[in-house]
Amino acid sequence: MTNTTIGRLIALEGIDGSGKGTQAHLLVEALRRQGHEVEFFSFPAYRQTFTGRLIGTYLDGGLGDPRAIDSRLTALLYATDRFEMRESLRAALSAGHLVVCDRYVGSNLAHQVARAAPRRRPELRAFIETLEFDVFGLPRPDLVVLLDMPVRLAQARVLQKAARNYTHKKLDAAEADARHLKAAAAEYRHHAETDPARWCRVPTTSGRHERARDEIHADVLSTLRHLTMPSFAPLD
Q1: Burial of 126 by CB count in 10 Å (0-12 exposed, 13-18 middle, 19+ buried)?
Q2: What rounded mean pLDDT belongs to the chain?
Q3: CA-closest candidate to residue 107, choices 70, 131, 79
Q4: How many domains does the chain have?
Q5: What is the pLDDT of residues 176-208, one digit of tens each?
Q6: In this structure, is residue 127 part of a structural domain?
Q7: Host domain of residue 73
Q8: CATH code of the domain covering residue 49
Q9: Is there a domain that residue 82 lies in?
């Protein structure tokens, strides 16, 4: 019998160092324990795609000063990385699986729009959404979970990370620019506020203190009520 169930795409978003990778893996494990078929994707796909490797070069400064490159071109670079993975995404969704993404189109919107002058930002938001969803035909996310973290804490967390395969620097071009990260965080919040049916904000701090990993994970699980699927089991 043909499977007519369409899966759901869940994207975890947030500025660099906000814990997206950790929370994405915790979410995948929890969903699999509940019996769901889950596929995991991480963007940029530095090791999997031709464009992912080029993005690593860009972030390491190998294409020149990243700040001097038009944000439409960098948006195209990140979107093309996802386009290379489009058929895998579509296949997982067509099989009725849950798809969890560590970064997705929301990252392109936040980081590339943040690089543009304020007067250009509405035009650039429309450019990126048209490029990703209409031109490249990427599936729209059913749920976007924003891990909201202050820039000062996010940068401190990035400095504690192990070496990355695309750069020898402790902070890549985006991570090192606190002004850019503040603008990207504001852009993320803009989308969470203007599209509350799709976006859910999960705070990662309480006052000046970082919240526990498992406490954040419980909040991430609670956002799944926004999905039009049978209810999920509570955290075990």
Answers
A1: exposed
A2: 87
A3: 79
A4: 1
A5: 577 888 899 999 999 999 999 999 999 999 888
A6: yes
A7: 8-226
A8: 3.40.50.300
A9: yes
Residue whose C-alpha is closest to residue 110's, from 190, 28, 10: 190
Residue 51 placed within a domain: yes
Residue 63 has pLDDT above 60, yes or no: yes
Average confidence (pLDDT) over 81-89: 98
User: Structure tokens of 126?
Assistant: 């429309």
Asked if residues 208 and 153 have their Cβ atoms less than 8 Å apart, the reply is no
β-bridge mates for residue 11, sequence order: 101, 144
Rounded distance between C-alpha atoms, residue 150 and residue 156, angstroms: 10
Query: Which pairs count as long-range contacts for 51-58, CB under 8 Å and 24+ apart, including other chains?
Result: 51/77, 51/80, 51/81, 51/83, 51/84, 52/81, 52/84, 53/166, 55/81, 55/166, 56/165, 56/166, 56/167, 57/166, 58/173
Please give the C-alpha separations between residue 213 and each of 17, 101, 149, 178, 184, in angstroms, as whole numbers. Answer: 13, 18, 13, 24, 23
Which residues have a Cβ under 8 Å from the Cβ of 96 and sit 6 or more positions away? Answer: 3, 5, 6, 7, 37
pLDDT tens column, 142-188? 999 999 988 888 777 666 655 545 555 544 555 557 788 889 999 99
**pTM for this one?**
0.87
Residue 87 lies in a domain: yes
**CA–CA gap between residue 166 and residue 233 (Å, rounded):** 38
pLDDT digits (tens, 9 = 90+) for 4-21: 467 999 999 999 888 999
Alpha-carbon span 161 to 175, nearest angstrom: 12
Q: Which residues contact 136 (CB under 8 A, 6 or more apart)?
A: 79, 80, 82, 83, 86
Query: What is the C-alpha separation between 78 and 29, in angstroms, rounded?
Result: 27
